[in-house]
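Page 47, continued from p. 46.
Same chain as before, 111 aa.
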Amino acid sequence: MLNDEIDPTQVTEKIIVLLRKHHRMPTSSLKCRHLEDKHCFGHQYNNINELVLKGQPITFILPAFPAKSPNFEKTAGNLPDLGERLSLCLLNKICKEISKFYSPYFNSQTK
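Result:
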């Protein structure tokens, strides 16, 4: 559940800060460096805040990787390749970090 000592808005902001650490954007978009720039993460902020206020789980969706290397020695088979494993590890790390201060279960899906 939500840590009683933390305001829900602070929880949302902490989640956004964690997500921003891993957000990749072109150098031409460096205007979105601060949490105060809510227009940069406004949609995510609003969605996450609504879930936090209700004490509901947050679902992260990891898009599928439709374009694999044609090198079948590296990517053949139904198991995740290195890129997919790294993405899953990062998603797991983010969920574990968030669960330290917001513990409704997390859902992660691949699409």
